[in-house]
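Need tokens for this chain, all 277 residues.
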Amino acid sequence: MLTSSFAAELARAHASVPDALPGAAFCALADGLLALLFPQRAERPLLTADAVAAELYHFRSELAALLALVPALPAPAPALADEFTAQLPALRTALLRDASAILASDPAAQGLGEIITSYPGFYATALHRLAHALHQRGLPRLPRLLSEYAHQRTGIDIHPGAQIGASFCIDHGTGLVIGETAIIGANVQIYQGVTLGALSVTKGLQGTKRHPTIEDHVVIYAGATILGGSTVVGTRSIIGGNVWLTESVPSHSRVYHRAHIQISRNEDPAAELVFSI
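Here are the structure tokens for all 277 residues:
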């Protein structure tokens, strides 16, 4: 039997919390924006410029209304909504470049439409670019809510503070982690299970550069771990699968992990299979 004191304790906890952020509505608005920017994602493509203009106006109004519910904004909600909406042309251009980078690198990709509608790497990158734009403007908590929404849907965890350059390609992507202070250049390709992380997670390092810098035209294969705020991967380098890297490498490097693999075969298929490590 729950006690009345427990109920009173929960009531005090609820009363002490400021107004809840409109997280679910904001994530739904982000999905709606992607459908507006990319008609391949829309249930019903808009057929006239007037229809598109009306949807853009609706998006701006809805964004302003949701931002008005957020405490401690760095600027008035309408001004922030106007500023963000004005960036939509540049955002769409950046995301088209991301999609084109995926198409150019993935032999399984059949076209931009497939990438825009079904590739988790593109979706995670799109929501990151939205979250990063809000993070740059100092909005509290909403950018992280958006990045965690993408994380839940794709298995790709990108902190909204991470700086990612043009033509970014995530292939597969499940288990990818990119930390808050990571800096990624242009034309970088990253596979599943990669971690761009910190060497230490002590609280005293908050506000410092804790995550690596990846320069332009770098490929990082599956399972690689690159750690440290002073670690720099030079341009046009290739980091092989399962590499553990905590120091910088110069441009045009090839870094790989060579495991010892032993293969044996029993010629008698009826023999008992016994395996020991």
